[in-house]
Amino acid sequence: MLRFGIVGTGRIGDMHARLVAMQPDASVTWCFDVMEDNAAATAAAVGGRATTDVDALLAADDVDAVLIATPTNTHVEMILRSAEAGKPILCEKPIDVDIEKVEACRQALEKFAVPVQLGFNRRFDPSHAAVQAAVASGEVGALELLVITSRDPGPPPPRPILEACGGLFRDTTIHDMDMARFVMGEEPVEVFTMAANRVDPVFAELNDVDTAMIVMRAESGALCHINNSRRTNYGYDQRVEAFGAGGMVRSNNHRPTEMSRHGASGTATRDPLLYFFIERYRAAYEGEIRSFIDSVTARTPPRVTFEDGRRALILSDAALESYRTNKPVKVDYS
Amino acid sequence: MLRFGIVGTGRIGDMHARLVAMQPDASVTWCFDVMEDNAAATAAAVGGRATTDVDALLAADDVDAVLIATPTNTHVEMILRSAEAGKPILCEKPIDVDIEKVEACRQALEKFAVPVQLGFNRRFDPSHAAVQAAVASGEVGALELLVITSRDPGPPPPRPILEACGGLFRDTTIHDMDMARFVMGEEPVEVFTMAANRVDPVFAELNDVDTAMIVMRAESGALCHINNSRRTNYGYDQRVEAFGAGGMVRSNNHRPTEMSRHGASGTATRDPLLYFFIERYRAAYEGEIRSFIDSVTARTPPRVTFEDGRRALILSDAALESYRTNKPVKVDYS
Amino acid sequence: MLRFGIVGTGRIGDMHARLVAMQPDASVTWCFDVMEDNAAATAAAVGGRATTDVDALLAADDVDAVLIATPTNTHVEMILRSAEAGKPILCEKPIDVDIEKVEACRQALEKFAVPVQLGFNRRFDPSHAAVQAAVASGEVGALELLVITSRDPGPPPPRPILEACGGLFRDTTIHDMDMARFVMGEEPVEVFTMAANRVDPVFAELNDVDTAMIVMRAESGALCHINNSRRTNYGYDQRVEAFGAGGMVRSNNHRPTEMSRHGASGTATRDPLLYFFIERYRAAYEGEIRSFIDSVTARTPPRVTFEDGRRALILSDAALESYRTNKPVKVDYS
Amino acid sequence: MLRFGIVGTGRIGDMHARLVAMQPDASVTWCFDVMEDNAAATAAAVGGRATTDVDALLAADDVDAVLIATPTNTHVEMILRSAEAGKPILCEKPIDVDIEKVEACRQALEKFAVPVQLGFNRRFDPSHAAVQAAVASGEVGALELLVITSRDPGPPPPRPILEACGGLFRDTTIHDMDMARFVMGEEPVEVFTMAANRVDPVFAELNDVDTAMIVMRAESGALCHINNSRRTNYGYDQRVEAFGAGGMVRSNNHRPTEMSRHGASGTATRDPLLYFFIERYRAAYEGEIRSFIDSVTARTPPRVTFEDGRRALILSDAALESYRTNKPVKVDYS
Fold this sequence. Notes:
2 domains; 15 strands; globular
């Protein structure tokens, strides 16, 4: 039985806590949040003590691992404090939006032998994972083209969230950058970005963009395209398509039912897509937690590493730099 | 170059004439209709002489074959006159709605060595034909379940047409009976029907039904279900599903485009289905004519025979008798 | 917090127990099974005491409701003992395979004011429920045709299970009979069945069938077709299609992923279907338990009643009688 | 009746000739080719005189319009000679692979009042045209993202054809450039390309590429992505996806049948895609010819102009330049 301390019980932390509690070999023993009511609500739902003192949680004997879901700008601090406390870590993405802080964290972590798994949940989505498995197995031959469609359902998040999120590339595209690395099985080495403000004036006011198209090249010559939007009216559009000499595999969107409608104005009409990440990636979030529990229990390395988080951020920064300079950017992972 | 006389140039005869004229190795030389304008219009579009005298057409040296598309109640007469004239025959379905007349025609035909192909066009539809080919090749193993969905787009045809058509079973279901025989590769031996009046009062006034469900059993134990309606609001619904130990194959509906729409009220919305037989079965009608030309040219037997027409009518009559008696009916093909 | 006693912790009881334990407002306090190890294993997974003494469970103060998942031939006894103990009941289908025993149970239950919900889980499947909701809302107009496809994945269950299950109609078709009543919103009044032995000799040895086609008529004239097989090679095939003047709605099959493959031998290839009821109807089983918890808590009537169980069995018996007599059977629900 | 002279009766010219001959209001009167046998074969199939002397065709009184399908490097000459002869022109794409020659042709054409329609057939494909119509009608709102997938089925064409074709961008991508302009309804103003050699060494030997990803920006900020490959193993992959605030519309691939297969190794398997342009775009080629006949007959401007051909070539050249310089290229249409 792996006993979790949940560090941060906002919307996403609460969801994680419930998924942990559902696992037969895991439980939640502590719930920390700076908002006392939040911590208490999650603790009531899943068990465990609520606290506003993260040190109490980290010092507790009955915490075998921590799940960090605090605001992004506290991730590095929470990672390091948890590492000092010797607790295996599952941390929400991104590590931070500032690559310097990430780099410093990486160096600081070197003195601890604590496993850190990063929350790129989409790797555990059954449909995307099936695409990656098909590519890894050689089913499509050497990968030639990878097309990632990733569009959030609208309207835009509240302005304070947008201000803190690091912008489209570091907040949203970072997931697609990780997906690209995951499916390609090699590193993108050059990135070019076109982007625009098409969705809502708030993005321009924040010196951010809301619509983007990226192309990337890997060492082998494999090419990748990502397109992003901050708003759809039909749900959360999440597709990955991998192409090579052996054919094409594709993960398509998920819907709440398999019902279709056929009438005078159209046929085969399906539901709008599942609304957003909590609904769409429920199986992925559960798979992520299972993988973490299994790797901590078996003392095997996590399947998504701190370094994966760092590299995805480097790619997101490259996409942003390309947009700002209107030039292709060579990626430096060192 | 096979030269056709078109016997009957109403809507369906005109369509056939145009398809004949498009074939590189066939032409239309004569067009007969009792309505002079009809004959003239078709002749103008496809070439050939227009006539209101069918004897002139049948006597003409430059007619190698006839295509009969006159009203159903004249089919038998036209078949026999064409046979007397020694012309290979492609005749629209049904032979007649009266099995006695069909039987008499069969006997009368015995003295002529003239090939007769019957117009069960759906056998030549690429999608249904692919289902039949898969079953015939053993891909699904011994056939166990066959489900045929066959629903006309509405509204109902004009009353005079309904009065002459022989009712739902002999007019519409007869196509599905032929499809069942075609895909099963054996004869249905027992039929049971439930039917209802749900679409329009005109059907009840004519002592006809507009909605039906049939189950049939073949000698091998294979079972077949047919469902019919005289009206959909989404186009011409035409599907065939064949099931056995080796799996399932299915022909799905056809639409004018492969475009889909995705919005707030639904996703993956496709066009309504192609409206009716002229649009939906265009490739099938062309395939039927190609097959006829090829078999006449090569002096091979037609792929759909007079006997196929007779047996489909016997099955349609059995379906009607079952509906009227509310009992399963054993089929007697003798 | 609704505290459950699980009566019967075989495969299906264990699944139910785990779903109960996942609900935030329910828990499992007792687990009964005649096999001590079974009871203990479930109790270890979900909490609660294990027992081989059902009386202890029924007498316990900390049991607010019971979930009955014992072998079918004990359902009636367990229902009545639970009712005597005053415990609200969620009982797996069927009530019994013998309509006389069901009738006796019904009369015996009259003296208890205990709610009984029957386990027709498919009513809670999101896809089928969406079809029913669309029909109930009038979206397709008055229902005219209902087509239910329901085929189990193979191979056949072990012989002892087959011997006890009551045969195809009472074991499998009964779910489809309930679905027909659920979607039609009225009672089938006449049933006709064709059936065959196509799958495995064991069914014939047991005087059972493995393949069936049924047609039914409701008072309004609406028609329903059900087709069943005991074996597919592509997973659990579960579809419901409802048709009327307003159009058609359809629930399609569920698969483990939304991935598709495109290669030289075929395109758009999807996974085989989810294997069987545990996988396919997981959401339905959870919805069933949620509905039970909600109705017990709110003291509202259960959404699936004992009478629903009785009527589905009457229809299954009518289907069997029709098969044996080769005649349509009028249904008597009195 | 519009009488056509077919200029060039290779594979594509022969196809055009047959489609012309099928139109009720058009005929083929002359067939020119430098290969006498080619000209004779087409003339035999569709009627008309065969000639190896293009001047005879252009001087003939019974030629109302010409269809140019000679090798690309003769298009400009044939256009100008046809214009001098006063014949309305339908010319296969591209005008030429050399923009200087195209520019000179444009200037030379100014003194003739002869309509020239360019052969961007895909604009007439029912599925792509439905996407364009939906965008033009405002159904998706202001266009934000356009994704064009365009992959040829393999293996590569013979080397001499590759040598003459002008390379991937001017031969293949030019169609996608036209599609982008068609659907966007505005001009791309900047282009960036990544490309690679992944398919066959012959492309590298010819200093060409076989795999490419392009991003483009229009004045409004709308973004477009094109991905190309010279080879798939599943048929001709041709998709267009348009996205905006109002939703998404998409044209999907076409297949020879609507049949699907369901078995142990996969479900919903469809045929490979239609193989290549002759099969996939048959309806488009016919629509293109219909549109030309209609516009010549009604003396309305052609729906695809010489200027459309020039601009698509400018975009293709920009894509090539971007690839060679690894920089985004601003497009100059002047």
